[in-house]
C-alpha cells in the first residue's frame, strides 16, 4: 500500500471529526451556561433564606431547603454530563490517533521489507555474474590446453584444425552444460522468499502519565461515576467495576466508603 493510499484513508476517517468535536464542545458550553445560571439562582435563594429564616415557620424553612437542595442536585447532574462529554471527546480523538499510529507502523514495515528485498535481489544478481565469469575462464583454459596439446604431439596442420574444432565444440557443449546448471540454480535461488509482515498495531500503549481511577486502577473510559465522599481516595469508578448500568438517583458511595460509613 502506497503512502498516498494511507493518507487518503486517514483523511476519509477524519472527515467527520471536526463536526463531532464541535457538537461536543457546544454541548459542554451549554451545560456550563445552565450550571452557572443555576448556581446564581441558588445564591439568591440562599441569601433570601438566611435573611428571612427567623420569620419563617418550620414548614416554610423545610420547603425552601428542599428547593435549594434540588437545584444543587440539578447542577451536579450538569457537571456529570459535562464530564461524560469530555471523556467521549477524548476517546474520539484518541481513537483516530491510535489508527494513525497503526498506519504509520505498517507503512514503515513495508518500506523496510522493500529495502530488504532489493538488497537480496542485488546480492543474487552479483553472484550470478560471478558464476558466468568463472564459466568463461574455464572455457578459455580448456581452449588453451587443447592448442598446447596439439603442438606437443606435432599433429599435422589439417588434423590440428579438426582437433581444435572438436575441442572447441566440446568446450561449447561444456559451457552450455555449465550454463544450464547455472540457469537451474538461478531458478531455484532467484525466488526471493516473502518476508512476514508483523500483525497490525491495533492497541497502542497508554500514556504512562495519564492518571488512573477506579478499583481496577485503569485510565478513564466509558461511563464513570464519582463517589460523594469528599475524602474518597479513588473518587471516580467505571460503571461495570461497581456493577452499575445506569446512574443511581441521589448520593452514591463507593464500596469502601459505604463500608466505612456502616462502621461509623
TrEMBL record:
User: What cellular component GO annotations does this protein have?
Assistant: nucleus
* UniProt: Zn(2+) 1 binding residues: 214, 216, 238, 241
Subcellular location, record wording: Nucleus
Composition-biased stretches, type Low complexity, lie in 165-177
List the residue ranges of the region (Disordered).
111-186
Its assembly, as annotated, is: Component of an histone acetyltransferase complex. Interacts with H3K4me3 and to a lesser extent with H3K4me2.
Name listed for the protein in its UniProt record? Inhibitor of growth protein
Amino acid at each position: 500500500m502506497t503512502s498516498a493510499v494511507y493518507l487518503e484513508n486517514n483523511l476519509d476517517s477524519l472527515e467527520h471529526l471536526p463536526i463531532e468535536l464541535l457538537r461536543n464542545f457546544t454541548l459542554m458550553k451549554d451545560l456550563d451556561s445552565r450550571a452557572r445560571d443555576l448556581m446564581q439562582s441558588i445564591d439568591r435563594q440562599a441569601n433570601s433564606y438566611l435573611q428571612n429564616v427567623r420569620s419563617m415557620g418550620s414548614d416554610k424553612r423545610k420547603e425552601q431547603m428542599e428547593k435549594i437542595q434540588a437545584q444543587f442536585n440539578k447542577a451536579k447532574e450538569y457537571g456529570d454530563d459535562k464530564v461524560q462529554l469530555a471523556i467521549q471527546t477524548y476517546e474520539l480523538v484518541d481513537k483516530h490517533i491510535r489508527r494513525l499510529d497503526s498506519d504509520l507502523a505498517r507503512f514503515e514495515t513495508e518500506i523496510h521489507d522493500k529495502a530488504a528485498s532489493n538488497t537480496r535481489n542485488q546480492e543474487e544478481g552479483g553472484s550470478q555474474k560471478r558464476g558466468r565469469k568463472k564459466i568463461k575462464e574455464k572455457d578459455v583454459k580448456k581452449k588453451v590446453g587443447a592448442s598446447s596439446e596439439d603442438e606437443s604431439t606435432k599433429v599435422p596442420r589439417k588434423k590440428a584444425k579438426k582437433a581444435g574444432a572438436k575441442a572447441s565444440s566440446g568446450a561449447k557443449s561444456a559451457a552450455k552444460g555449465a550454463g544450464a546448471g547455472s540457469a537451474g540454480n538461478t531458478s531455484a535461488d532467484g525466488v526471493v522468499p516473502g518476508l512476514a509482515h508483523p500483525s497490525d498495531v491495533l492497541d497502542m500503549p497508554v500514556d504512562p502519565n495519564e492518571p488512573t481511577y477506579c478499583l481496577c486502577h485503569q485510565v478513564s473510559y466509558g461511563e464513570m461515576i464519582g463517589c460523594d465522599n469528599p475524602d474518597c481516595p479513588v473518587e471516580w469508578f467505571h460503571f461495570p467495576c461497581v456493577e452499575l448500568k445506569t446512574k443511581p438517583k441521589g448520593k452514591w458511595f463507593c464500596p469502601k466508603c459505604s463500608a466505612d460509613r456502616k462502621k461509623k
